[in-house]
């Protein structure tokens, strides 16, 4: 005997299945992270606590900022990320292109505790900065008893043979170069003063490298005393038992803002906002500072003395942060790299 499914029952089953699928979708977030030690810290400081608190599942795609931005652009009609993290200023361009949603600070419990610079672009769709990689000077404290207090120390001829410069194809290297250019009298419309300084330094015996591990090698094996680079990597060298410290220059501290952004055209923005909010919490930021030496953007974050010494910390520490205009850098990057390569080829 055949059994016929009641149409009402069939509809009810279909509705339940659809509701179950929607619930699963609403309880899952897809984000990017940057791999390696960063992703390990990201999971410890934000992702795992978020999953435990909300019962949600976070799918992590390892993608650095430039690659994540390229994916976001390619998927603009059907984006796959719910939250996207950037460290190179890509949120400014992405927001202008309508790829990110504006964020109402009233929907973020922790927004009120952020320094103003960290939330300045929310209404435009630029996500809040939840950490900062501060670019300053890494120095060998055994060789330099007095910490360098000024970016002009990079031009000290007594230090030149022990100076490490980083290629501007490296993001941190670009920021360090732009600061050198600034103190030498240049700006984003004129990088020639910086290029002239680089040529002089290379002629005086400075070393140029392209990657972070090469910096470690120079300090470990080749008597490097000084390099313009980031607070997080200074900590990496410290963990490798090298006698280095990080310090900020009096003229300002170039900053790489690490932002967490709400992707437009996604169905579960409420859950995404909860994730963003957790990234802004003092606990998450204290964790990032401890694990990687990133500077907190939450004014209520409290750091132990040894951690605070390695970052831009507190109102006085972040006061000196400066951010070079990311769209201008991107528009000129290729031309600047070409000029840089010609300069270092003539050393």
> Per CATH, which architecture of the largest domain?
3-Layer(aba) Sandwich
Low-confidence stretches: 10-23
What's the helix count?
13
Q: Could you name the CATH homologous superfamily of the largest domain?
A: Periplasmic binding protein-like II
Instruction: Kindly estimate the percentage of residues that lie in beta strands according to DSSP.
Output: 15-25%
Largest sheet: 8 strands, mixed
Protein name: ABC transporter substrate-binding protein
Keywords: Signal
Can you tell me about this structure?
The protein is an alpha/beta fold and 347 residues long. It has two domains: 7-132 and 256-312, Periplasmic binding protein-like II (D-Maltodextrin-Binding Protein, domain 2); 134-254 and 325-345, D-Maltodextrin-Binding Protein, domain 2 (3-Layer(aba) Sandwich), CATH 3.40.190.10. The protein has 13 helices and ten strands. The chain is globular and about 60 Å long. Mean pLDDT is 92; it is low at 10-23. Keywords: Signal. Residues 1-24 form the signal peptide. This is ABC transporter substrate-binding protein.
Quick rundown:
The protein is an alpha/beta fold and 347 residues long. The protein has 13 helices and ten strands. The strands form two sheets. Strands 3, 4, 5, 6, 7, 8, 9 and 10 form an eight-stranded mixed sheet that branches. A two-stranded parallel sheet has the order 1-2.
Features:
347 residues; alpha/beta; D-Maltodextrin-Binding Protein, domain 2; 2 domains; 8-stranded mixed beta sheet; two-stranded parallel ribbon; 10 strands; 16% strand; globular; SBP; signal; ABC transporter substrate-binding protein
């Amino acid at each position: 005997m055949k059994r016929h499914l009641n149409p009402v029952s069939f509809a009810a089953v279909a509705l339940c299945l659809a509701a179950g699928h929607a619930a699963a979708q609403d309880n899952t977030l897809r984000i990017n992270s940057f791999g390696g030690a960063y992703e390990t810290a990201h999971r410890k400081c934000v992702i795992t606590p978020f999953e435990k608190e909300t019962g949600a599942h976070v799918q992590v795609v390892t993608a650095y900022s430039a690659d994540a931005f390229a994916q976001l652009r390619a998927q603009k009609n059907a984006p796959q990320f719910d939250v996207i993290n950037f460290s190179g200023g890509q949120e400014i361009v992405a927001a202008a292109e309508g790829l990110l949603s504006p964020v109402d600070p009233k929907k973020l419990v922790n927004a009120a505790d952020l320094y103003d610079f960290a939330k300045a672009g929310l209404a435009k769709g630029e996500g809040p900065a939840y950490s900062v990689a501060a670019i300053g000077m890494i120095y060998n404290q055994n060789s330099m008893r007095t910490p360098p207090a000024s970016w002009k120390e990079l031009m000290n001829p007594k230090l030149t043979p022990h100076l490490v410069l980083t290629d501007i194809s490296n993001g941190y290297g670009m920021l360090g170069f732009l600061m050198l250019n600034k103190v030498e009298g240049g700006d984003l419309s004129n990088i020639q003063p910086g290029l002239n300084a680089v040529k002089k330094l290379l002629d005086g015996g400075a070393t140029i490298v392209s990657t972070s591990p090469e910096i470690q090698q120079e300090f470990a094996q080749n008597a490097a005393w000084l390099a313009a680079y980031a607070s997080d990597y200074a900590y990496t060298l410290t963990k490798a038992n090298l006698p280095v410290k990080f310090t900020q220059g009096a003229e300002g501290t170039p900053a790489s803002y690490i932002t967490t952004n709400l992707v437009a055209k996604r169905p579960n923005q409420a859950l995404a906002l909860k994730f963003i909010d957790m990234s802004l919490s003092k606990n998450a930021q204290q964790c990032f500072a401890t694990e990687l030496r990133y500077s907190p953007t939450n004014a209520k974050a409290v750091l132990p003395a040894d951690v605070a010494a390695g970052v831009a910390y507190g109102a006085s520490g972040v006061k000196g942060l400066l951010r070079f205009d990311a769209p201008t850098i991107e528009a000129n990057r290729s031309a600047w790299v070409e000029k840089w390569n010609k300069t270092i080829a003539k050393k």
